[in-house]
Amino acid sequence: MGNPQGLEGTFSQGIVSSIREVGSDKLLQITAPISPGSSEGPVLNAKGEVIGVSVATFRGGQNLNFAIPSNYLKALLGKSGPVKPLVQAKPVKAPRSLLGDLGGKSTEGIVGENFTYDGLSLPTGEYSFSLVNKLRDPVRDIYCLVVFYDLGGNPIDVAIHRYSSPIPGGLAKRITASVEKSVEKLNNPTPAFPYVPDPPRKPRGRVEIRVLGFRITD
Asked: CATH: 2.40.30.60, 2.40.50.140, 2.40.10.10, 2.60.120.260. Which one for 4-77?
């Protein structure tokens, strides 16, 4: 069930054609059609029970779509409390490409790199980073989470970004955004007078860029 191309409340029929392993995790391979707008929609069985959540499609073939199994959702629903435990978790590797299971292509995935602050005189903390496509195939609809830490290693803020335009295989795109100036000061306090560095500049505190998901395109 989803909203393909903005058509809300669409139901599409299909079968679970395989269970694929991606590293230590598993994905359901389904034949139910997926279009832009279908991502994050529930995958139901004949009883109307949620068995997964749609996340990706492989456009190199037909009816090669993928969903996260519902047992992962049960683990998330069983947790409670603020977001803080999530951002304090150990960094995870960038998601593997589904192509690694469908033909042995690169499995490095999409990564965020080269974070810098770009403007001292602005009222908000202007920053930028690069999204690097290490796959052979173009990707789009990239979702990523940027986590800011103070100099003591404590999380102080998060930002979620979506880049919808395609990034060709092996290339990168520079993303520009801003954060509250107070966050920048805690993450990257500027040296005292008389020396102030010219932008762009690397943060003194830690900034983590986590790629949450992306879509492989033609």
From this structure: 2.40.10.10
